[in-house]
Each structure stands twice: as C-alpha cells, then as structure tokens.
Amino acid sequence: MPHATPFPTAPARTAAVAARATDLSKVYGQGETRVVALDSVNVEFGRARFTAIMGPSGSGKSTLMHCMAGLDSISAGSARIGDVELASLGDKQLTRLRRDKIGFIFQAFNLLPTLTALENITLPMAIAGRRPDQDWINRVVETVGLSGRLSHRPAQLSGGQQQRVAVARALAARPEIIFADEPTGNLDSRSGAEVLGFLRESVRAMDQTVVMVTHDPVAAGYADRVVFLADGRIVEELPEPTADAVLDRMRMFETKGRTN
Ligand SMILES: Nc1ncnc2c1ncn2[C@@H]1O[C@H](COP(=O)(O)OP(=O)(O)OP(=O)(O)O)[C@@H](O)[C@H]1O
Ligand SMILES: [Mg+2]
Predict the structure, then answer these.
(1) How far is the CA of 28 from the centre of ligand 1 (A)?
(2) How many other CB atoms are found less than 10 A from the CB of residue 34?
(3) 73 in ligand 1 pocket by Cβ < 6 Å?
(4) Residues with Cβ < 8 Å from 157, sequence gap 6 or more?
(5) Pairing between β-strand 76-81 and β-strand 84-85 as defined by DSSP bridges
(6) Whose atoms come closest to the Cα of 33: which ligand?
(7) From the CB of 59, is ligand 1 less than 6 Å away?
(8) CA 196 to CA 85: how far, in whole Å?
(9) Burial group, residue 153, by CB count within 10 angstroms (0-12, 13-18, 19+)
(10) Model confidence over 192-207: pLDDT tens digits?
C-alpha cells in the first residue's frame, strides 16, 4: 500500500481543509413534491487535493456542488469555504466570496461568444475591478496550453479548447477552490483527457483545490480521492482511485441496487 500514510511530512497547508459540509441537508419543494436532495452530508475537501464526486443520476452531486459554492441555499447543517460559514453571509458578502474564493466550471462551457479567449479568462476579474496578475495569467495560460489561441473567439476553438478557456477562467482569480460539474461531459475522450490533465496539473503545480463531478471512471482516476453519493448520502470513499477500482465499486453499487 504505497499510499497508506499520505504526506507524513507535508506542510500544514496540505493538510488544511478548503471546504467542509457538516450535516448538510437540502430539501426542495414541499408536500407531495418534497425531495430530499442531500441528507445530512458530512464531507471535507482537502486543500491542494483533487476530489471526484460520483453517484447515480439524481443522487445529489450537482446539489452538493451548488450548495458548497453558495449558488444554492441550504436547508440544514452547514457549508463552509475555509472558515467561512456560507449561511452567515449576506447577499453582497456571498457574491464577493463567490467571486474571490470560488471557481466554477460547468458542463456547458459558458463562454461569452463575442469575447476572445483572453477576454473570457480575465472577464470575472475585470468585473470585480481587479487587475489581473500578468505573470499568473501567463502561467495559467501556459499550463492549460492556450498560448497560441488567446485572440480566438469561442466559435474558432474546439470543444476541448473552449473548456480549457473555462478552466483557465476559473484558475485566473486564484480561487480557494474550484468546483467542476461534469466538465468533460460534453467532450470527446481526447479533449476530455486534455482538460483532466490540466485540472490535475493545476493541483500538482499550483496547489489548486478541485472538486469534480463525473460519471466517468477514467475521469475519476485523475483524482486523489473519490466520494460516492447515493440518495443524497455519502455511501463510500475511495482513496487513490484507479479507473478499474472505480468501475468495480460502481458495479458493486449496481448489484446492491438490484437486490434491494
Ligand atoms: N431546483 C430543483 N427543484 C426541485 N428538485 C430539484 C432541484 N434540483 C434538483 N432537484 C432534485 O434533487 C435531486 C438531486 O438532484 P441533482 O441535480 O443534485 O442530481 P445529480 O446527482 O447531479 O444528477 P445528474 O447525474 O443527473 O446530474 C433530484 O431528485 C432532483 O430531481
Ligand atoms: Mg448533476
């Protein structure tokens, strides 16, 4: 077991927690339409770690990401980014925290079609009135391999390149944590592998914290750890996952589901 004692001499920063859910519940609707999307979830996302979230459709993966990123309110428990309790923030404070501390990558790239790649990457900072740190932007652009494409508009880029722009946009503001909801869901396997490689590299080279929802065992294999959700609960965790181990685990859940 090569990973039995991970990072025994790692600096304190590596051990720190970037985000944490404590007894987090989310209920949508009421009466007959009531849905418990998250049922008392407890999970920590370590700093400079890459965590994958997996689980069947409707198990609460997107809801967990939205609640942790302050994009949706919670019904009970707590969601914290660093030491900040999201429910304690007013609207303006929450907007600022989202802008400064959180990056979000969606399945659809969500780029503005009339802006160039570089403008898309720096737009959130421009809106925030922050001057981009040019050295950092250069490093991000290089890391995601977009150096030759900065003046292209989204329509002139492949799907993989567009998603790399979205990854660079999330990295540009140096957020505490990046949440990515099926970032490779719309990509072919080669482009998907590129994007996953860049997310992995941002964790390794830049100490970025990444939490990524995926249905794909190969994608989950890029992560340091996989957390499995079912019916709004965390049912399993897999450290140092390989695609084969993830697939085995998914098969196990399916078999259990059928016997129930
Ligand atoms: N805005 C909403 N209003 C009512 N119910 C919702 C809402 N958003 C999600 N739900 C319900 O909450 C549950 C969890 O949904 P969620 O989108 O988190 O699942 P998911 O794991 O991301 O699924 P998928 O893999 O299909 O994206 C589902 O039963 C869903 O129908
Ligand atoms: Mg979802």
Answers:
(1) 9
(2) 9
(3) no
(4) 117, 149, 165
(5) antiparallel
(6) 1
(7) yes
(8) 30
(9) middle
(10) 888 899 899 889 988 9
Contact 115, 153 (CB under 8 A): yes
Structure tokens at 218: 């190969």
- What is the pLDDT averaged over residues 131-147? 86
Neighbouring residues of 246: CB distance < 8 A, sequence distance ≥ 6: 54, 217, 220, 221, 226, 238
pTM: 0.88
Q: Which pair of structure tokens corresponds to residue 12?
A: 């304190």
**Rounded distance between C-alpha atoms, residue 89 and residue 86, angstroms:** 6
Amino acid letter, residue 95: T
Q: Sorting pLDDT into bands at 50, 70 and 90, what band is 182?
A: very high
| Pairwise CA distance, residues 146 & 97, whole Å | 28
What pLDDT is recorded for position 8? 41
**CB of 122 closer than 6 A to ligand 1?**
no
Distance (angstroms) between ligand 2 centre and the Cα of 26 equals: 14
In this predicted structure, what is the pLDDT of residue 257? 55
Q: Rounded distance, CA 118 to CA 141, Å?
A: 9
Two tokens, residue 252: 């196990």
Condensed to tens digits (0 to 9), the pLDDT of residues 14-27 reads: 458 999 999 999 99
Of all residues in the chain, the percent with pLDDT exceeding 90 is: 65
State the distance from the centre of ligand 1 to the C-alpha of 63, rounded, in angstroms. 6
Phi/psi of residue 128, nearest 5 degrees: -80, -5
Residue among 99, 211, 111 at smallest CA distance from 163? 111
161 burial class (0-12, 13-18, 19+ CB within 10 angstroms)?
buried
pLDDT in tens, 219-244: 999 999 999 999 999 999 999 999 99
